[in-house]
Amino acid sequence: MQRILRIINRFNIGGPTYNVAYLSKFLADNYETLLIGGEPDEGEVDSLHVLTDLGLKPRIIPELKRKPNIKEDIRAFLAIRRIIKEFKPDIVHTHAAKAGAIGRLAAISCRVPIVVHTFHGHVFKGYFSPVKTKIYILIERWLAKHSTGIVAISNEQKKDLVEVYKIVKPDKVRIVPLGFDLDQFQKNKEINRKIIREKYELHEDQIALAIVGRLAPIKNHSMFFEALRIVQANTSAKIKVFIVGDGLEREKLEAISRTIPQNHRFSIIFTSWIKEIALFNPGMDIFCLTSLNEGTPVSLIEAQAANIPVLSTDVGGVRDVVIANETGFLVPSGDTKEFAKKLLVLIENKNIREKMSQNSGTYVEENYDYRILVSNMKRYYEDLHKKKHEN
Predict the structure, then answer these.
(1) Cβ partners under 8 Å of residue 214, min gap 6
(2) In CATH, what is the architecture of 2-181+369-390?
(3) 20 vs 374: CA distance, rounded Å
């Protein structure tokens, strides 16, 4: 049995946590896995309940933080090196940028036989200044050169890594989409809808909109509120908007929301993070996303798993998750007027919502189930192991 050391940036709500959780749990028959990672950032909720529910006990590395900090990064590097020397993994598999940099450096320095990194999005657009971005690109190129394999979670992401930013050669990249337990979104769906509608006093003639994610600049909630301003002025529909998530921009966004007229016909609610998202989603009618950059947006997968139509900016791996005009609408990044226009279409046309609803559940089930993820990753490890022994 081979050993895998799996390293994640931090245990917060999001795609990477689910990815490492399902891989750690369901590869168990073939691999012994040690899962390590950092703590959530300020304004984030930890996702340890996801791991606990699966019977997993990760090791927390407090020094592994999201933001660059030389002292903490060196401590994290040394901590991971110690773990590698103790655990003696055959494979080190890192997930997301910070864990990918420090974890791979530690693995390379310890001469771990197979070093793999999964990009859960990237930081080459919308995060840093041009100078910092160039530095991060150079670092990622060096790390990719010294990695055994690279995992992209979408076709669009592979294109970015190979063609746009030239991080890695195409023959070193394997596309392995994320996987989730999607069955929970169909279980007791009608009952859950009733529970959520009653909890938030939603009448059947009200349209419930939700946007889920960190309240951070990269998610571009400001665009969402500007679109809501246009929508509010151009429809007589009864609408209740749910801002699900938390973060450093919450105070700013709450102030923006108060500038939009609200009454019995139109209101905005900040819910903070919701852990029981499979209970919450069926109560919604439309899901939105306005990000400037995305890897694979989990919120849109989970929305479609509950048969909810979506509206999103066309960025990163969104196009791999949403079938344009069939399970949802996609609009150019930053195009507030077009976003508002498509949102009005969904609000005013129940038939369109119902048609997209019918398409969405089947699509994500066939492409983003955790069992597919586990099977694909197992095959990739086997291919890397075979190739290593052939060389």
Answers:
(1) 43, 44, 245, 246, 247
(2) 3-Layer(aba) Sandwich (3.40)
(3) 10
Side-by-side strand order, sheet with 238-244: 266-272, 238-244, 206-212, 286-289, 310-313, 328-331
Q: Where along the chain do the CATH 3.40.50.2000 domains lie?
A: 2-181+369-390, 183-367
pTM beyond cutoff 0.70: yes
Q: Does domain 183-367 have CATH number 3.30.70.260?
A: no
The predicted-structure confidence for 218-272, as pLDDT tens digits, reads as follows: 999 999 999 999 999 999 999 999 999 999 999 999 999 999 999 989 999 999 9
Closest CA to 307 of 361, 353, 349, 364: 361
Question: 275-302: per-residue pLDDT in tens?
Answer: 899 999 999 999 999 999 887 899 999 9
pLDDT over threshold 80, residue 126: no
State both tokens at 37: 């990672």
Cα distances from 147 to residues 49, 124, 310, in angstroms, run 31, 19, 36
Contact indicator for 214, 244 with CB cutoff of 8 Å: no
Nearest Cα residue to 373 out of 7, 27, 6, 1: 27
